[in-house]
Task: structure prediction
Amino acid sequence: MFFDHQNADGVFQDNYRHKNNYTIQLNVNGTPGVKNTAFGDRNGVLISNLQNSLDAGPEQVVCGVESSFNPPTGGVGFWDAVNMWRFTGNFNAGASVFNIWEYVSGPDVLVDDDNAVIIDPADPNSRVLAQAGPGVYVFRRQIPDELLATNPGIAYCIDADTVQITFLGTPDAFAGNDFGVCDDIADLLGDDRASSVIFNGSWEYVIDSGPVGAPAPVFIDDLDGRVETQRVQVSQPGTYTFRWRVGSEDCPDVDLVRVTFAFGSFTPNAGPDQSVCGLGTTLQANPDPSNAAYWTVSTNSPTQTGINFSGTVYNPADPLNPRIFNNNPAVTVPVAGVYEFIWNYGFSEGSVNCLVSDTVRVRFVNVAGANAGPDQVVCGFTTTLTGSPAVGGSIDGSSWSLLTAPGGATPPANLPANNQASVGVTVTTPGEYTFRYSINGTENCTNSNDVVVFFVAPPIPRAEQLGYCGLGGSLRAYDDGTTNGNNFDPATDEGTWSLVSGPGTLTIDDPNDPETTISAISAEGIYTFQWEVARTVTLPSGATATCTEAIQVEVSLWRCP
Result:
C-alpha cells in the first residue's frame, strides 16, 4: 500500500486490492468546516471525518428571545479514515459554503421547526428567533448529508457540532400602581408579566424612602404562598417605597411602588352594646380630643327618620344627614327595634383620606302602654280593678301588685294573678290603697301604671220608733249602741229623715236630727220612714268624696186607747 502523506492531493495505491482492509489517517491543519475530498480510485469505502474541526460556538444565555450564532474562526483537526471507497477531489476546494445551521430541540410548545426560526441557515453568524418563547434551545451546525446523494462521485467528510442557547425572555417587572391604605398594614401585589420559565421575583424596601427616622417596614409573610404578593407593616404613618425585582442576574428588571400608610392615634370606640326598656337611651363613646368624631345612624336600623339626638350639628354639605359631634348624646327613636349607631373619625395622610369607625348596637324594647284605669273612691270595701289588656308584640303577660296600704291593713283578698287585666278586690280596712298594673315584655322590660283606690267605710244607719200613742211620737236613727250600732259621725256625716209611704200625712219636725219628733199624723196606720246618711271624706289629694247609705223603718201609729 502506498500513500503520499505530505500531499493533500496525493495518490493512494492499494497494491493488495483488498476491500475494507485499510485504515488511513491524514492529519490536516486548516480552517474548521473545510471541505475534504477523498483520493484515489480503489475498491472499498473510506469515510473521512475531520474531528473537532467544526465548532458551533459556546453556549449562550440570552435576555429576550433573539440571538446570533457565534462560532469560532479557527481550529485544528485531523483525518480519521476508516474503510475505503473510490473518491477523487481536492480537500479544500470551496468547502465552507456547505456549512449550514438547523434546529434540534427546544420547548415543546409549537410544532417541529416552528419552535425556532434561523434567519440564514448558511450564515455562520445567522440570527435566530425563539418563537416558542423563553427556554433552552439546541441548534446544529453541519455539512448536510444530502450533498452525498446529489454528488455521488465525490465523498465529503460530514462534520457537525451543536450549541445550546438559553433564551430568558424579557422580564417586565410591575410593582403595581401607587396606593394608600388607612392602616399600618398593606399588601404588595407584584406581577412580572413574563413567562413563568424565568419567574424569580423578590420584594425589598428602598432604604430611607419612608418618613425621616422611621424604622424600616417589616415583611410579615407572603399571601397564598406567592412570592409576588407580600404583606408589609410599618410603625409610623407616611409614604414608603418598595422595589419589585424579577428575572435573574443575567436578565433582571425592577419596578417601584409607593405606598402611603395613614393611621391615627385616636381609635374610636362607640361604647358597649345596649338593651334598653323604652325608646330612649344615652350613647357612651370615647371622647375625641380633636372634636372631629361624629355619630351617624346605620342603614341597618329600622328607620333613619324621627330619631332625635341631643347636641345635633348638621353637616352644611348635606343638611339631611345629621352629624352629632357630642360623644354621649341622649337619643330617642320612634319605633322599637335594633339600631346601629356609628362613631366616625376622619383623618388624612398626604392625599389619602381615611375614615375609621366603630358601631354600637342598641335594642330598644317598647312594651305596650299599661293603663290601670282612673283613680277610684269606693263606698265600701270591694271594688273591681280594670287594666288595659296586654297587646302588641314581645308581650309576656300582665300582673297586678299592691304598692301601699293604710297602716295596719292586711293585704287585700283575691289580688289578681298574672295575666289578668281585670279583677275584683276586697279590703278590710278603709283608707287609701295604691295598686300597680304591669305589662311584661322581653329583655325584662316592664311598662306599668298605678291606680289609687280610696275605700270609704260607709255609714250604717239604724232607725226605730220611740213613741206612737196619740198619733205622735219620735224617730231615732241609732240604737242603744250594743250591736250593729249606728256609726253616725256628726263631724263627717249628714243624715236626713223622709217619709216613704203611709196611710196619711204627717210632719217630721227636724228631718236632719237623728232623733226627731213626728206630728200632725192624719190617719192611723203603718208608715215607712227612711234615714239616709251622706258621709263626706277628704282625700289625700285634698279633694272630697261623699258616700251615701240609707235604711228604712216601719212605724205603726195608732190613737191611744
